[in-house]
Amino acid sequence: MSVNDPITPEPLLQLGLGFMASKTLLSAVELGVFTVLAQGGRDRDSLAAEVGLHSRSAADFLDALVSLGVLTRDEAGVYANTPSADVFLDRAKPSYVGGILEMANVRLFGFWNNLTDALKTGTLQNEVAHSGAPFFATLSQDPVAWRNFLNGMNGVSTPLAGALAANFDWTGRRHVVDLGGALGAVPAAVLRSNPDITGAVFELPPVQPVFEEFVAAHGLTDRLAFHGGDFFADPLPEADVYVMGQILHDWNLEQRLFLLQKAYDALPEGGTLIVYDAMIDDERRQNSYGLLLSLNMLIDTEGGSEYTVADATQWLQSVGFAKVEARHLIGGYSAVYATK
Predict the structure, then answer these.
(1) Between the CA of residue 173 and those of 58, 202, 219, 339, what are the distances in Å?
(2) Which residues lie closer than 8 Å to 70 by C-beta, 6 or more apart?
(3) Which of 48, 122, 154, 215 is at 20 to 30 A from 182, Cα to Cα?
């Protein structure tokens, strides 16, 4: 913008009312719009009947999705998915990342209404804010919410998994363990491209039934195992590569250093710990995604936050790792590779 360009409120209004576009997409995922259209284009009435839209809402809702760039509509009035929506928002495809959007719709969207309270008090605002019960233990008691949460975590990890599998030299590595790896998207991607490697996920025991469904669906039952436990209290399974993705951001600094030290102590000489998160750029100016996720951790955890690449590097060096290298993955995510 030049100094002579008029100042308008439009960018501020778009930002302030951005929740409208967000909820429109979240509702489309919830209703299965993209999954239906992955089977072929539909006219408005047919699509509305299939996903349960009222006649008053159908035209504006579907055309809003067109204007937002996730659907197309041809001259005959037939709606179809855009290429990215077809790849990533069709529940029937292994590339589906809508799990995190389903979780956002069911859980996070409402909690963000309490952001101002979180900013003033520094306290979490999720479903256990008033009960004081442990978050994971409480969530796992609700089968639907628990499955939504795990699928959401897997949805975040799915696009990262391929990048992690390709971004590291797995030559000579034998066994990878994902610490807090949800359903195992990352080790599954590593195993698919490295047939001589085996893997495991170390997770809370209630994860196991959903994990086993995921592993069976991907044909990896004989190579990808489950270890139930608490990484704060229980010994870590043996491995020559640990993955700790979207884990450190759940905890405060003391807890982060405890987990990193525990991983370092358990690795053999030459073993590697891979840490990834939506790490904030060191100048704290560019990665809006990471900064907003850090506010989400304020809302959803007792002491969590995102952190910078420099922070992660310093922590890993402080617990003893001799070689530490940071690399950008995709989008707002970075990984730090630390070798003992």
Answers:
(1) 53, 18, 21, 13
(2) 25, 28, 34, 81, 82, 84, 85, 89
(3) 122
Compute the distance between CA of residue 192 and CA of residue 150 in angstroms, rounded to an integer.
21
135 pLDDT band, cuts 50/70/90, is low
Assess contact for 201 and 178: CB atoms under 8 A.
yes
Q: Is 113 in contact with 126 (CB distance < 8 Å)?
A: no
**Pseudo-torsion of CA 263, 191, 335, 288, nearest 10°?**
-120
The CA distance from 59 to 73, in Å, is 11
Write the DSSP assignment of 249-316 as a string of letters.
GGS-HHHHHHHHHHHHHHSPTT-EEEEEE-PBPTTSSS-HHHHHHHHHHHHH-SS----BHHHHHHHH
Structure tokens at 145: 């919410």
Run of H or E residues at 64 = helix 55-67
Average pLDDT for 70-85: 97
Cα separation, 244 vs 266, whole angstroms: 14
User: Structure pTM?
Assistant: 0.89
Provide the pairing of β-strand 241-245 with 71-73.
unpaired
CB under 8 A, 24+ apart: contacts of 211-215: 211/182, 211/183, 211/184, 214/154, 214/183, 214/184, 214/188, 215/183, 215/184, 215/188
Please indicate whether residue 328 is annotated as part of the active site: no
Check 130, 218, 227, 249 and give the catalytic one: 249
